[in-house]
Every structure is written in C-alpha cells, then in structure tokens.
C-alpha cells in the first residue's frame, strides 16, 4: 500500500521533486523558442505532436537545433478556456500516462508545450505570434468540422456567419483560416518567409484539404495574397496515429495516489505511435525522424491503410458494440464474436481494396491492430468512437463498400454496420433499452431518416451527403434491407453477426 505523500502540484519549480518513476524534461525549457504554433490542444495533440517534439528535445537530440521548436498552443473557442487555465497554472506541463497491455505504465511529464493563448481574448496578439519570425510551423488539430466545409458542395463554406465575419473583420478573426491569412499577410508585407501549415487531423490528404480551404478563403479576401500563399506556403499531408481515450478522473487520481502528483489534466494513451509525413516544409522543421516519425514522398497508401483498417475497425466495433450493449473497444475485442467479426471484415472487405504498402506487412498490421484494440488498460469508450459518425463513415467505410461493389467483392460485414447505425440513430438505445448518448452534427437528420425505416427500409441509406448514391445499388440495398428489417424485428445484433460470418 502506498503511504499518502504530500501532494506535489505539477509545475516547473516542482519538477525536481517528482519521484524517479515519472520521467520529466531533461532539457532547459527556458531556452526554448516557439517555432510551432498549434491550434487545437486536445488529448491527441498532447499524446502525439507534443510527445514527438518532447522526445526530440530530450532523448532524441541534445543539439541546439531542437530548441527552436517549442510549441505555443492556441484556443480559439470559449470551451478551450479550461485547458488554457489548467496549462497556465502548470507552466504548460502535463503528464502523459502511457498504458501498456501487460499493465506496465510509463509516466512522462511533457515539456515541449511552453505557452498558450486564447484567440478570443486578444486575436491581434495571436496573429502577431503567428507572424513572428520565430514561428516556422502552424499546426492544426481542428477536427473535420473545423474545416468549415459546405455539406452539399464539399467546398469551403464562405456563407458561414464566422467566415463572413472574418472577411469584414480581418484583424479580429473567429475562424482559424482568418488567423492564418492575417498572419501570412503580415509576413508577406514584412518580407518574412511564410510558415508551413501542417494539419494533424485524421483526414485523408489532410494537407491538400487544408491548402484548398485556406486558398478558397484567401481568394475572397485578397487575390494577390492567395497567389502568394499558393506559391510560397507548404501544406504537408500526414497520417497520424495514436489511440488516445478521453481523460477520466481515474487518470487524475492514479497520478495523485501513486506519485502524490497533482496534475489537473493528464493524457492517457497507448504505447503505439505513428506519424508518416510528406516532407514538404518551407521554413525548416524538427528532425522528428530521429524519434520515430517517417518522412515519405507519398502518404496515400499509409493513410488509406489506417483509415480503412484502424478507423473503420473502430466504427465496426463502435456501432455494432453500442447496439449490442458493449461499452469499450477492449470490451468488444474480448468478446470472441466481435473479434472474429472484426478480423473477417478486415480480411474479406477492407484488405482486398487496399493498395500494397511497401515495407508494410498488412497481415501483421492487422494483428497489431487487434492487440492494440484489446489493450485492457485503454478503456476507449464506444461513445468516443461513435462521435460524429456522419463525418467518419463516409471516409472510413463507404469507400470500401463502393469499391467492393465495383469488383463484386463482399459487402455484408459493412452493410450490417450501417444497419446497426440506422437502428442506433433511430432508437438511441442499445438492445436492452439503455440510452445511448449520440453526439453528431447531423444527429437530427440521421434520426429523422432512420425513423422512416419501417415505411421505407432504405430511408436511412438515402442520406446522400453521407452515403452518396449507395441507395441506387441493387446489390447493396437487397443485402442492407434484409439486415435492417431483421434488426428492427430483433435488435440482438449478435444473431446477424453470426449469420454474416456463416454466409
Ligand atoms: C477513432 C480515432 O475517432 C475515431 O473514430 O477511430 O480517434 C482513432 O482512435 C485515432 O485515429 C487513432 O489514431
């Protein structure tokens, strides 16, 4: 039993008081310059980019060069105020709790984050910081919704009130794109080199998407600026990966009980970590390859592999598991039926339409995925996985179905996932009647379409912004309609999962 020690609040001054099992920065944080401005300091940024950068400054490289890459976080919205105040109180330090499947835990205080600013409090100060010659990279984790796309056209939604506001008030922007163009305008006027804009979102060709929306927005502001950005700014594509569940009170209590460490907002993650980046930076970059990142000429096969196996696998378990009554990903994987179903989906539907990735053994990748999902110490809630399914499934799952339809491949494992999603959106309960908390920008639309299933079994499938023209495929709709009807008769989804496995 641990004897209750005196609690040590996490901050710079107390670092030397931490017990030896808690790793901490081995470099002088006060020597760091801010080379990276990061918008969207959620758990994922803190387990991934900030982690790689911390590794580089500590174990990876003791040279002066890595000292140029301190990170300043930016919060643009009012809900970011909580993380802002926690980080400020803790001198921007936080603990990363890396939980291995065998129970081993690595605890590491991350020091690469050295400042934080709230855009709404002083937009001019954030623009100036981005425009500072020290800033070489502005990176983003703003989620799919942050790219402000018009659902119907897929283009940047210039009619959004915030976009209109930013056009009229370029010095007081609300959208990240307003900040980026205002800062780039300053750099251009001052004859400074641009910065690289690096998306860290889990989106296919995240750099290309960012380029497109930044340019679309800039063209509405100033055609010349848009041209300058097009010629001078780089937007590298990247595949990012590390499972990072939502921080819980247990994580906070664990640090306090084990080490007497008071950290108000630690981050928990798995040991696995991957970052594959196209090497297109216009103003230098950290040597992240020294600490495990991969720089490649073309990220396409890596991102496809990840989105269609890992993320789609998550959605398969998330939606079927939610209707069944499971709560976490590891809970699903320890259920043999779910584990078998997942593997068959990956082998029979996802893999046959993937490109080979040089140097990657897909069979081994899938084995590792199942191990990662099964990590019993990462209690990744299905509620997190099912968040915003309407922007995830069109990328994770629908392309696999479409490509299998084109080559007469199997579609039944994916079809059942969509049938389960329909039931979930309509009834919003699991098979036992327990309420499911659905969080989705399109929640109302999904619900309305799903509620029409008893009259028209294809009602849900007719949401074209999610499924495209899938409702036109006779082969798909036959399989799907039978499944959705059966699920409404008996919501025990395991019966249909077994049937799909037998077919
Ligand atoms: C998950 C991802 O949100 C989801 O649906 O699949 O957050 C996943 O955990 C990460 O992409 C892992 O890198």
Automatic annotation (TrEMBL):
Give any single GO term for biological process: mannitol metabolic process
Q: Which residues form the Mannitol dehydrogenase N-terminal domain?
A: 35-290
- Keywords assigned: NAD, Oxidoreductase
In what residue span(s) does the Mannitol dehydrogenase C-terminal domain sit? Answer: 298-487
PROSITE patterns, alphabetized: MANNITOL_DHGENASE (PS00974)
The protein's GO terms of the molecular function aspect are: oxidoreductase activity, acting on the CH-OH group of donors, NAD or NADP as acceptor
Q: What name does the UniProt record give this protein?
A: Mannitol dehydrogenase domain-containing protein
Q: Which organism is it from?
A: Rhodopirellula sallentina SM41
